[in-house]
């Protein structure tokens, strides 16, 4: 999990300068949620939705289980969670090809007008990272990682401080 956060953090920082030049477009949060809810009870689709209270509980548990004064990396990681108000994860690798294609088409349509921060291809698999960069205050809002070939969607709704991400990356 730590490795994934670091990889996403690096991608955000590297693409922040490029995306700041383009006009910022807001993420269609509700449209993405509606598409996911439409597939929630479909066989082969696993959906995990953690709201503001769940994020608060995760942060509290992590803070209580470790001594944050002795671990600056954990302290910065907990700061990252401050602005996040929803985490939505969909794994649909086991869905039928028709269901997967329909879901991919609907999510791609919802993301069509969003800022693409980064796109990576590896052995026939594509990973696209979308978000809104607000460089004036050093934030990335509503980050979406979409891997249609692997059947995965990860949405981090809220604000992530680029300064906190940079500090965590420096510690590693």
TrEMBL record:
Supply the Pfam families for this chain.
Answer: DUF4252
Alphabetical UniProt keywords: Signal
The signal peptide stretch is 1-24
Query: In its keyword annotation, does this UniProt entry include Signal?
Result: yes
Q: Known InterPro entries for this protein? A: DUF4252 (IPR025348)
Q: What name does the UniProt record give this protein?
A: DUF4252 domain-containing protein
